[in-house]
Amino acid sequence: MSRLVLFILAVVFISQEEWEAQSMPQFHMKDQYGQSYSDSSVKGKPVVLMGCYLRDLELCRKQGRKLYWKMQNLLWKDSSKVHFLLYLDFQETNKLVENYLEESKTKQYESILLDRKGHLTVGLNKGESYLRIFNKSGKLISSSYQEEMDENLIQEIYGILKKEI
């Protein structure tokens, strides 16, 4: 009898865990260079998705750049097996920002997705980046808010990605 109860509890726990696993939000947007990205185009590989409000552009760019380049070194040959996507809530922009964006097209900046329709704004906090990691199937496996990108966090992300590759 106790084995049956344990079995039922295990099935309920596993089912609940799968049921609670969040899927990657649906999105379709372009980066500053006009390249299109969508949730369906990045599935099949682990996805590191980091986002910020427009006012936190420098924070997000600094953290995203540090994370991206550290992961390129740590993952080395496997770095192409992971999608790294940085996005900005770009619903409320102005002429000055649009001009800056146009001028930056000639520079070799990392790609930043411009969320003009608010596909990924749910969960964003002022003054922090919203970091999420999704597995190959598009299920959420890690979620956190960051004010800075330190070495401990980078090692933690590396460990998560290494298991998913």
TrEMBL record:
This is Uncharacterized protein. SUPFAM superfamilies: Thioredoxin-like. It comes from the Bacteria. It comes from Leptospira soteropolitanensis.
